[in-house]
Amino acid sequence: MRNISLLQIFYKSLYSFTDIAKFRFLSIGKTIQYVFILICIYFVPSLINSIIIEKDSTNLIPDFDAGSVAIMLPIFIFFMFVLNTGILFLKVSILAYIAKGLANLLKRKLPYRLSWRLTAYSITLPTIIFGLEPLLPFTIPYGFFIDLALTFFYIYASINKMPVTKK
Q1: pTM value?
Q2: Could you read off the pLDDT of 98-111 as tens digits, one per residue?
Q3: Does residue 74 sit within a domain?
Q4: Which residue segment(s) compose the domain that 29 sits in?
Q5: Which pLDDT tens digit goes with each residue over 26-41?
Q6: InterPro entries attached here (predicted)?
Q7: What is the count of structural domains for the chain?
Q8: Burial degree of 55 (CB within 10 A; 0-12, 13-18, 19+)
């Protein structure tokens, strides 16, 4: 399990609740690396849509001429990446707390640190779907609620694959 690649983790996190439950034992370093890869997958389609497809980066930074936009755009991209990183880490942290409570209801022992890891792998599919949304010709209605529902489904199914705590 220690020598599993991030690509294998990504692939298995899309469909295998049993593997997600096992991934909670991976190191925190590998989990954080994985979350950063998810952030890139989430952030890059939005960036591509704004800069390449629409071919108008001035709408990202209003009230600047074209020369100033060329200077400000990398700074803007960096701060948007940092903002997305913070939001995703906060999302995982809050959902991990909820997952810990859900594990208690399901009679499973899940400390917060393992809950955080399980949640980080459970957000894979929703993150991919809503990360690619800017490239789609339509918007997903009620995206926030669909994102949470999918995430909770993955968390619930993964916790169900864990062994029941014995007294």
Answers
A1: 0.88
A2: 999 999 999 999 99
A3: no
A4: 6-42+90-160
A5: 999 999 999 999 999 9
A6: DUF1189
A7: 1
A8: exposed
